[in-house]
Protein backbone atom coordinates (compact mmCIF):
# COMPACT_ATOMS: atom_id res chain seq x y z
CA UNK A 1 0.00 0.00 0.00
CA UNK A 2 1.39 3.39 -1.03
CA UNK A 3 1.77 6.06 1.63
CA UNK A 4 0.61 9.54 0.63
CA UNK A 5 3.49 11.98 0.92
CA UNK A 6 2.56 15.41 2.30
CA UNK A 7 5.07 18.18 1.64
CA UNK A 8 5.46 20.34 4.74
CA UNK A 9 6.76 23.90 4.66
CA UNK A 10 8.05 25.90 7.61
CA UNK A 11 7.31 29.61 7.77
CA UNK A 12 10.89 30.31 6.67
CA UNK A 13 10.31 28.08 3.62
CA UNK A 14 7.17 30.07 2.80
CA UNK A 15 9.07 33.32 3.28
CA UNK A 16 11.61 32.25 0.66
CA UNK A 17 9.06 30.91 -1.79
CA UNK A 18 6.75 33.93 -1.89
CA UNK A 19 9.16 36.71 -0.81
CA UNK A 20 6.97 37.86 2.07
CA UNK A 21 8.50 38.25 5.52
CA UNK A 22 7.56 35.72 8.20
CA UNK A 23 6.35 38.45 10.57
CA UNK A 24 3.96 39.67 7.84
CA UNK A 25 2.49 36.17 7.44
CA UNK A 26 2.09 35.94 11.23
CA UNK A 27 0.41 39.36 11.30
CA UNK A 28 -2.08 38.24 8.63
CA UNK A 29 -2.85 35.18 10.73
CA UNK A 30 -3.23 37.10 13.99
CA UNK A 31 -5.32 39.92 12.57
CA UNK A 32 -7.45 38.15 9.97
CA UNK A 33 -7.02 34.41 10.70
CA UNK A 34 -5.61 34.27 7.17
CA UNK A 35 -4.02 30.90 6.33
CA UNK A 36 -3.48 29.59 9.86
CA UNK A 37 -0.75 26.91 9.92
CA UNK A 38 -1.37 23.29 10.69
CA UNK A 39 0.39 21.52 13.55
CA UNK A 40 2.18 18.20 13.91
CA UNK A 41 1.34 15.86 16.82
CA UNK A 42 4.27 17.50 18.63
CA UNK A 43 2.74 20.97 18.06
CA UNK A 44 5.22 22.12 15.40
CA UNK A 45 3.65 24.62 12.98
CA UNK A 46 3.74 23.86 9.26
CA UNK A 47 2.03 24.70 5.97
CA UNK A 48 1.03 22.24 3.26
CA UNK A 49 0.86 22.70 -0.53
CA UNK A 50 -2.73 23.98 -0.42
CA UNK A 51 -1.69 26.64 2.10
CA UNK A 52 1.24 27.61 -0.12
CA UNK A 53 -1.03 27.89 -3.15
CA UNK A 54 -3.43 30.12 -1.22
CA UNK A 55 -0.59 32.33 0.03
CA UNK A 56 0.78 32.65 -3.51
CA UNK A 57 -2.65 33.79 -4.66
CA UNK A 58 -2.97 36.24 -1.77
CA UNK A 59 0.41 37.79 -2.56
CA UNK A 60 -0.56 38.06 -6.23
CA UNK A 61 -3.74 39.98 -5.36
CA UNK A 62 -1.86 42.14 -2.89
CA UNK A 63 0.65 42.99 -5.64
CA UNK A 64 -2.30 44.06 -7.80
CA UNK A 65 -3.46 46.54 -5.17
CA UNK A 66 -5.97 44.51 -3.14
CA UNK A 67 -5.75 45.22 0.59
CA UNK A 68 -5.26 42.25 2.89
CA UNK A 69 -8.37 43.23 4.86
CA UNK A 70 -10.41 42.86 1.67
CA UNK A 71 -8.77 39.60 0.64
CA UNK A 72 -9.43 38.11 4.09
CA UNK A 73 -13.19 38.43 3.49
CA UNK A 74 -13.02 36.37 0.27
CA UNK A 75 -13.37 32.63 -0.06
CA UNK A 76 -10.54 30.54 -1.48
CA UNK A 77 -12.56 30.15 -4.67
CA UNK A 78 -13.08 33.90 -5.04
CA UNK A 79 -9.38 34.52 -4.52
CA UNK A 80 -8.45 31.89 -7.11
CA UNK A 81 -10.94 33.29 -9.64
CA UNK A 82 -9.56 36.81 -9.25
CA UNK A 83 -5.97 35.62 -9.65
CA UNK A 84 -6.96 33.89 -12.91
CA UNK A 85 -7.93 37.30 -14.31
CA UNK A 86 -4.46 38.70 -13.68
CA UNK A 87 -2.39 35.82 -15.00
CA UNK A 88 -2.01 37.40 -18.44
CA UNK A 89 -0.49 40.58 -17.01
CA UNK A 90 2.89 39.71 -18.53
CA UNK A 91 4.42 43.07 -17.59
CA UNK A 92 3.98 42.31 -13.88
CA UNK A 93 7.20 40.38 -13.27
CA UNK A 94 6.32 39.64 -9.63
CA UNK A 95 3.09 37.92 -10.65
CA UNK A 96 4.86 35.85 -13.30
CA UNK A 97 7.65 34.81 -10.90
CA UNK A 98 5.01 33.65 -8.43
CA UNK A 99 3.19 31.73 -11.17
CA UNK A 100 6.43 30.02 -12.24
CA UNK A 101 7.09 29.12 -8.60
CA UNK A 102 3.68 27.50 -8.30
CA UNK A 103 4.10 25.56 -11.56
CA UNK A 104 7.50 24.34 -10.38
CA UNK A 105 6.20 23.14 -7.02
CA UNK A 106 3.52 21.10 -8.79
CA UNK A 107 5.70 19.91 -11.71
CA UNK A 108 3.11 21.49 -14.01
CA UNK A 109 4.91 21.52 -17.36
CA UNK A 110 1.90 22.83 -19.29
CA UNK A 111 1.45 25.84 -16.99
CA UNK A 112 5.20 26.54 -16.93
CA UNK A 113 5.39 26.47 -20.73
CA UNK A 114 2.36 28.74 -21.07
CA UNK A 115 3.88 31.30 -18.70
CA UNK A 116 7.18 31.24 -20.58
CA UNK A 117 5.46 31.62 -23.94
CA UNK A 118 3.28 34.49 -22.74
CA UNK A 119 6.20 36.42 -21.28
CA UNK A 120 8.41 35.91 -24.34
CA UNK A 121 5.67 36.84 -26.81
CA UNK A 122 4.84 40.00 -24.88
CA UNK A 123 8.28 41.09 -23.63
CA UNK A 124 10.77 39.29 -25.86
CA UNK A 125 13.37 36.86 -24.56
CA UNK A 126 15.85 39.48 -23.34
CA UNK A 127 13.38 41.28 -21.06
CA UNK A 128 11.87 37.98 -19.95
CA UNK A 129 15.30 36.71 -18.87
CA UNK A 130 16.21 39.98 -17.15
CA UNK A 131 12.94 40.70 -15.33
CA UNK A 132 11.39 37.26 -14.79
CA UNK A 133 13.63 34.24 -15.32
CA UNK A 134 16.88 35.36 -13.70
CA UNK A 135 15.08 36.50 -10.48
CA UNK A 136 13.06 33.28 -10.54
CA UNK A 137 16.13 31.04 -11.00
CA UNK A 138 18.02 32.86 -8.26
CA UNK A 139 15.12 32.23 -5.87
CA UNK A 140 14.88 28.57 -6.89
CA UNK A 141 18.63 28.08 -6.41
CA UNK A 142 18.53 29.50 -2.90
CA UNK A 143 15.50 27.41 -1.96
CA UNK A 144 17.19 24.28 -3.29
CA UNK A 145 20.26 25.03 -1.18
CA UNK A 146 18.13 25.39 1.96
CA UNK A 147 16.02 22.30 1.22
CA UNK A 148 12.75 24.22 0.84
CA UNK A 149 12.29 22.65 -2.59
CA UNK A 150 13.54 19.36 -3.97
CA UNK A 151 16.48 19.09 -6.40
CA UNK A 152 14.06 17.52 -8.88
CA UNK A 153 11.98 20.71 -8.87
CA UNK A 154 15.05 22.84 -9.58
CA UNK A 155 16.01 20.54 -12.46
CA UNK A 156 12.42 20.57 -13.76
CA UNK A 157 12.41 24.37 -14.06
CA UNK A 158 15.99 24.71 -15.33
CA UNK A 159 15.51 22.17 -18.11
CA UNK A 160 12.29 23.76 -19.35
CA UNK A 161 13.96 27.18 -19.46
CA UNK A 162 17.03 25.72 -21.16
CA UNK A 163 14.90 24.03 -23.83
CA UNK A 164 12.99 27.24 -24.54
CA UNK A 165 16.16 29.32 -24.94
CA UNK A 166 17.46 26.78 -27.46
CA UNK A 167 14.20 27.15 -29.41
CA UNK A 168 14.60 30.93 -29.40
CA UNK A 169 18.22 30.63 -30.59
CA UNK A 170 17.13 28.41 -33.48
CA UNK A 171 14.40 30.89 -34.46
CA UNK A 172 16.85 33.81 -34.67
CA UNK A 173 18.01 34.97 -38.07
CA UNK A 174 21.61 36.01 -37.55
CA UNK A 175 22.13 39.50 -39.01
CA UNK A 176 24.88 39.96 -41.56
CA UNK A 177 27.80 41.74 -39.94
CA UNK A 178 31.10 42.74 -41.50
CA UNK A 179 34.03 41.11 -39.69
CA UNK A 180 32.06 39.69 -36.75
CA UNK A 181 33.95 38.95 -33.55
CA UNK A 182 34.43 35.34 -32.51
CA UNK A 183 33.38 34.16 -29.04
CA UNK A 184 34.24 30.91 -27.30
CA UNK A 185 31.48 30.04 -24.81
CA UNK A 186 31.95 27.43 -22.11
CA UNK A 187 31.42 26.65 -18.44
CA UNK A 188 34.51 25.83 -16.37
CA UNK A 189 34.93 22.73 -14.24
CA UNK A 190 32.40 22.47 -11.35
CA UNK A 191 29.90 24.82 -13.05
CA UNK A 192 26.87 23.02 -14.47
CA UNK A 193 24.18 25.71 -14.79
CA UNK A 194 23.93 26.28 -18.52
CA UNK A 195 20.99 28.69 -18.78
CA UNK A 196 23.00 31.92 -18.56
CA UNK A 197 25.53 30.72 -21.12
CA UNK A 198 22.79 29.75 -23.57
CA UNK A 199 21.25 33.19 -23.15
CA UNK A 200 24.65 34.76 -23.87
CA UNK A 201 24.73 32.73 -27.08
CA UNK A 202 21.29 34.11 -27.98
CA UNK A 203 22.47 37.70 -27.42
CA UNK A 204 25.64 37.15 -29.43
CA UNK A 205 23.77 35.59 -32.35
CA UNK A 206 21.22 38.42 -32.32
CA UNK A 207 24.13 40.86 -32.74
CA UNK A 208 25.62 38.90 -35.64
CA UNK A 209 28.62 37.54 -33.73
CA UNK A 210 30.22 34.14 -34.39
CA UNK A 211 30.16 31.67 -31.51
CA UNK A 212 31.61 28.30 -30.63
CA UNK A 213 29.52 26.79 -27.84
CA UNK A 214 31.17 24.07 -25.76
CA UNK A 215 28.67 23.80 -22.89
CA UNK A 216 29.26 22.76 -19.30
CA UNK A 217 32.22 21.55 -17.23
CA UNK A 218 34.91 21.88 -19.91
CA UNK A 219 38.40 20.79 -18.71
CA UNK A 220 40.88 23.66 -18.69
CA UNK A 221 43.36 21.77 -20.87
CA UNK A 222 40.68 21.34 -23.55
CA UNK A 223 39.98 25.07 -23.53
CA UNK A 224 43.62 25.78 -24.30
CA UNK A 225 43.52 23.44 -27.30
CA UNK A 226 40.31 24.98 -28.65
CA UNK A 227 41.78 28.48 -28.35
CA UNK A 228 44.64 27.45 -30.63
CA UNK A 229 42.32 26.00 -33.27
CA UNK A 230 39.32 28.36 -33.16
CA UNK A 231 41.26 31.59 -32.48
CA UNK A 232 38.44 33.49 -30.75
CA UNK A 233 38.53 37.21 -30.03
CA UNK A 234 36.94 36.62 -26.62
CA UNK A 235 36.18 33.79 -24.21
CA UNK A 236 32.89 33.95 -22.33
CA UNK A 237 31.95 32.09 -19.14
CA UNK A 238 29.00 32.31 -16.73
CA UNK A 239 29.25 31.58 -12.99
CA UNK A 240 26.04 31.01 -11.03
CA UNK A 241 26.47 27.99 -8.73
CA UNK A 242 26.13 29.19 -5.14
CA UNK A 243 28.65 26.66 -3.84
CA UNK A 244 31.34 28.29 -6.02
CA UNK A 245 30.85 31.73 -4.49
CA UNK A 246 33.80 31.74 -2.12
CA UNK A 247 36.10 30.49 -4.88
CA UNK A 248 34.89 32.76 -7.67
CA UNK A 249 38.17 34.65 -8.11
CA UNK A 250 40.15 31.43 -7.87
CA UNK A 251 38.05 29.89 -10.65
CA UNK A 252 38.38 32.98 -12.86
CA UNK A 253 42.14 32.97 -12.30
CA UNK A 254 42.35 29.30 -13.23
CA UNK A 255 40.44 29.93 -16.46
CA UNK A 256 42.66 32.87 -17.37
CA UNK A 257 45.79 30.76 -16.94
CA UNK A 258 44.65 28.77 -19.98
CA UNK A 259 43.65 31.74 -22.14
CA UNK A 260 45.54 34.21 -24.27
CA UNK A 261 42.39 36.20 -25.18
CA UNK A 262 40.20 38.58 -23.14
CA UNK A 263 37.72 36.88 -20.81
CA UNK A 264 34.11 37.99 -20.29
CA UNK A 265 32.49 36.72 -17.09
CA UNK A 266 28.75 36.98 -16.38
CA UNK A 267 26.36 35.32 -13.92
CA UNK A 268 24.82 36.03 -10.53
CA UNK A 269 28.10 35.43 -8.66
CA UNK A 270 29.70 38.34 -10.50
CA UNK A 271 27.19 40.80 -9.05
CA UNK A 272 27.39 39.32 -5.54
CA UNK A 273 31.15 39.06 -5.00
CA UNK A 274 34.07 41.44 -5.46
CA UNK A 275 35.92 40.45 -8.61
CA UNK A 276 39.67 41.09 -8.74
CA UNK A 277 40.69 43.59 -11.42
CA UNK A 278 42.65 42.32 -14.43
CA UNK A 279 43.29 44.08 -17.72
CA UNK A 280 42.18 40.99 -19.70
CA UNK A 281 38.99 40.52 -17.65
CA UNK A 282 35.58 42.16 -18.13
CA UNK A 283 32.95 41.37 -15.46
CA UNK A 284 29.38 41.70 -16.77
CA UNK A 285 27.08 42.10 -13.78
CA UNK A 286 23.71 42.08 -15.52
CA UNK A 287 21.93 41.88 -18.86
CA UNK A 288 22.39 45.61 -19.43
CA UNK A 289 26.17 45.24 -19.06
CA UNK A 290 26.22 42.47 -21.67
CA UNK A 291 24.11 44.36 -24.20
CA UNK A 292 26.14 47.56 -23.68
CA UNK A 293 29.38 45.66 -24.24
CA UNK A 294 28.08 44.13 -27.48
CA UNK A 295 26.80 47.47 -28.77
CA UNK A 296 30.28 48.96 -28.41
CA UNK A 297 31.98 46.25 -30.50
**CATH top level label of the largest domain:** Alpha Beta
For the termini, the CA-CA separation is 64 Å
Strand proportion: 5-15%
- As for the number of domains, it is 3
Averaged pLDDT:
89
Rg calculated over all Cα atoms: 22 Å
Q: Which architecture of the largest domain does the CATH hierarchy give at level 2? A: 3-Layer(aba) Sandwich
Q: What is the 3D shape?
A: elongated
Domain HTH merR-type: 8-77
Protein name: B12 binding domain-containing protein
Keywords: DNA-binding, Repressor, Transcription, Transcription regulation
GO molecular function, one term: metal ion binding
In short:
Residues 8-77 form the HTH merR-type domain. The chain has 297 residues and is of the alpha/beta class.
Amino acid sequence: MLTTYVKKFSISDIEGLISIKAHTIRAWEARYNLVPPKRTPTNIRFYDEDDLKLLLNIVTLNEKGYKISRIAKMSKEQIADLVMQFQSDWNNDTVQVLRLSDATLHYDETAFAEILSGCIEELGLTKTMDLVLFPFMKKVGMLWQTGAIDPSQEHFASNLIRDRIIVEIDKLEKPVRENPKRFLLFLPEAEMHETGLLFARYLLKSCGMDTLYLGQEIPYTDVKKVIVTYKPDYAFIVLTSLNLGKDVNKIIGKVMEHLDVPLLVAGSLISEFDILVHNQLTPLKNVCDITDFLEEL
